[in-house]
Amino acid sequence: MKNLKMPQNFLWGAASASYQIEGAYLEDGKGLTNWDNFVRIEGKTFKGTTGDVAVDHYHRYKEDIALMAEAGLKTYRFSIAWARIFPNGRGEVNKKGIEFYNNIIDECLKYSIEPMITIYHWDLPQALVDEYGGWESRKIVDDFVNYATTLFKAFGNKVKYWITLNEQNIFTSLGWLTAMHPPGKFDDQKTFYQVNHHANMAHAKTVIAYREMGFTGMIGASFAYTPSYALNCDPINAMSKVNYDDLKNFWWMDIYAYGRYPKAAMKYLQDRGFAPDIQQGDMEILKEAASKISFMGVNYYQSCVCEYNPLDGVTPYGTMNTTGKKGTGAVVGIPGVYKNPANTFLKTTDWDWTIDPSGLKYCCREITSRYNLPIVISENGLGAFDKQEEDKSIHDPYRIAYLKEHLKALAEALDEGCEVISYCVWSFTDLLSWLNGYQKRYGLVYVDRDETDSGSLDRYKKDSFFWYKKVIESQGKALFDE
Ligand code: BGP
């Protein structure tokens, strides 16, 4: 094991998302988004936290990118706020928006950091929601492609890595099934699958447009991949894993990689009247886009266990732990199909997320054998309570241990034949955790702020910052030093 290293051109990185870091939510012509409104509904976020100020990256991007350079990052994955470019979703381009992201890109390039842009990380111009229900209408496909091609025109010559959609499976599940994200709808299965079909079409047409514009860079989607293990060898549990994989993972990844929906899952949805309406020509477009993507983006945080779930069993709507009080998250599942009990072999975070480094290798191996695509690990990290000491230092050995074990598993995946081109820690600085406020910290860099919008917003390097720097400098060799 000791000789494992990442390849020379490996893109060591870190990731963020516009709503979670930028703040400046009303500045320089930005339009309001679905999230600007959603966080104002009582009870939706932990202690009513918002991204109004977030960690003020909008004004401090130079300082943040200088810190990235100091850490030795080779890539920085960030998202663009659609409403900064088109305040109303379409129409006239807001020059200030283009200027802001141009500055970020130039600042990265100044330090030889490859910008990796996420086109959509969940903040949707509210105007499009008001006009036609956002993702619920097929009209969004053209508006999305118009927005994406505007970005390609503006930045395509400087930016070589593009991610169309971040975690389509999560923003749609939380938006239309569990009401935890905007638009806050509950158990709207038919719309959920329709919304996903629209998102698939938006992704596909964007990929095709990128290639038609003559760009040769790398483009793909980032999927929140939660790989599954059957509880045991009881065939009923093994089948629940097969069902879970089809409905929760391959439903999306097969579209990105092959342009097709898994057959058994489609039959299951058709039998229940939940299958999406697919227009003539859609499947050809999805297929064409699949042949043009460059990688599978993976956001990996945890694995899960699958067990048969009786018809009167648990639902997908159990409470999520958003407080950091261990053990408050409920077991969820689909009655008659599967449920996801705790993995008794593994520890969990304070937010009840299972810690499983081998799960990351499992994702890579599965993608390699099922899709044979290069892989970008676009997010991986630990949300934890951090404490700043009197002398301002932050000791986060738990984060170092988490990242170290995951990176070792990744090095093994590479050694076993997977083509992994990048790894992005979530996140570079502390930032807003959508539903969990500011106390669930992910950063390598601590930001002095809490739920109350008080705090200096000053940046402090955590121990994990120095550790990651060493790992990058040694091309991963330091992972294996005891
Ligand atoms: C992913 C999102 C990120 C980030 C991360 C951590 O699902 O792409 O935006 O938030 O998860 O999740 P959380 O903030 O809920 O702990």
Unreliable parts: none
* Broad shape: globular
Distance between the amino and carboxyl termini: 12 Å
In CATH, the topology is named: TIM Barrel
At the first level of CATH, the class is Alpha Beta
CATH superfamily heading: Glycosidases
Rg measurement, Å = 21 Å
Series of secondary-structure elements, N-terminal to C-terminal = EHHHEHHEHHEHHEEHHHEEEEHEHEEEH
In short:
The chain is 39% helix and 13% strand.
Could you characterize what this model shows?
- By secondary structure, this protein is of the alpha/beta class.
- The protein has a single domain (11-308, 343-480), classed as TIM Barrel (Alpha-Beta Barrel), CATH 3.20.20.80.
- It is built from 15 helices and 14 strands.
- It has an 8-stranded parallel barrel with strand order 1-2-3-4-5-7-11-12, surrounded by 6 helices.
- Strand 11, helix 14 and strand 12 (420-426) form a beta-alpha-beta unit.
- The protein is globular and about 60 Å long.
- It starts with 10 loop residues before the first strand and ends in a 9-residue tail after the last helix.
- The mean pLDDT is 96.
- The structure holds 6-O-phosphono-beta-D-galactopyranose.
- 6-O-phosphono-beta-D-galactopyranose (BGP) is lined by residues 17, 20, 166-167, 170, 224, 299, 379, 383, 426, 433-436, 440.
Observed structural traits:
single chain, eight-stranded parallel beta barrel, 482 residues, 13% strand, TIM Barrel, alpha/beta, two-stranded parallel sheet
